[in-house]
Design goal:
Blueprint: H1 2-16, E1 37-43, E2 52-56, E3 69-82, E4 85-92, E5 95-99, E6 102-110, E7 114-121, E8 136-143, H2 145-150, H3 158-165, E9 173-176
Parallel strand pairs: 1-9
Antiparallel strand pairs: 1-8, 2-7, 3-4, 3-8, 5-6, 6-7
Organism: Gillisia lutea
Protein name: Collagen-like protein
Length: 179
Amino acid sequence: MKKIITLALFSFIALTSCSDGDPGPQGPPGEDGLIGSVVDVTGDFSAANNYELSLNFNDVGLEVYESDVVLVYLKTGEDGTAGGQPVEVFRQLPQTYYINGQALQYNFDYTFFDVLIFLDGTADFGSLDSSYTDDQVLRVVVVPAEFAETSGVDISNMEAVMKALDVQENDIEKASLKK
């Protein structure tokens, strides 16, 4: 019993005599909250550009990391107004349309340097109505991979993504890829 009391007493003294010491220097500041970038791209798909639009992220001042996810949405129309402004309708790419039995698909691929948006499918692109090729508005959204994987936001719903990122229409960068 005497050994147990002695052992308990030494343990108590050892545990209570430890101190935290002086705090070390403060580390570098971290990033504030979730970061996401949004760019609206306007351009024409034509034979001259091989029915492709390419956006180099450096050209619009975006820093994209290898782990980031790039989402692209096609403006498909407008649905009324809100606050005097048109309500734009966007759909996530890829987006497929069937025209006279032929398939037209708007698709994209990306790296951390750029995004390439292109027409694909069995349709004769040269004979498409200009509503499918001219003055196309595409919204490019860059988000951290963690956001895309764990946020629970439906990334096919551009409105939900914009709300989660707290991006307002006036925060969106504009880029024209017309030649």
